[in-house]
Amino acid sequence: MDHRELAFLDLVALGRALRARELTALEVTRAMFERIAALDGRLHAYVTLMRDSAEAEARAADAAFARGEDRGPLQGVPVAVKDLCDAAGVATSAGMPVVRANVAAATRDATVVARLRAAGAVIL
Questions:
Q1: Residue ranges making up the domain that contains 50
Q2: Less Cβ crowding at N or C end of the chain, within 10 Å?
Q3: What is the pLDDT of residues 69-121, one digit of tens each?
Q4: How many structural domains does the chain have?
Q5: Ordered DSSP codes for 56-120
């Protein structure tokens, strides 16, 4: 399945495919980065992408599935977080380029990001 097909899978279908090991979280995460690369030049929807940490989170989700661990419907699912929510290690600039250069990286996750991570979501 390519990034165009994966982008339109609903959460239930994606979760089912991940749990059945028909897809891996790493494959899905990489496909989402491919889709972002294909479209974001026109959309400018992303300020920061966390590819390295996202791929690490995807690998962890795949390893958890392999061990029979399941944290719920978001495990292994890539999720984009608006640049209004702190993600540890990333500067939060509310999408304003003028602010971006003068903002320090967040020291911790916002509650919503922490809960997504706890549920096994892959933060893009």
A1: 3-123
A2: N
A3: 999 999 999 999 998 899 999 989 888 877 777 788 899 999 999 999 999 99
A4: 1
A5: HHHHHHHHHHHTT----TTTT-EE---TTS--TTSB--TT-HHHHTT-PBPSS--HHHHHHHHTT
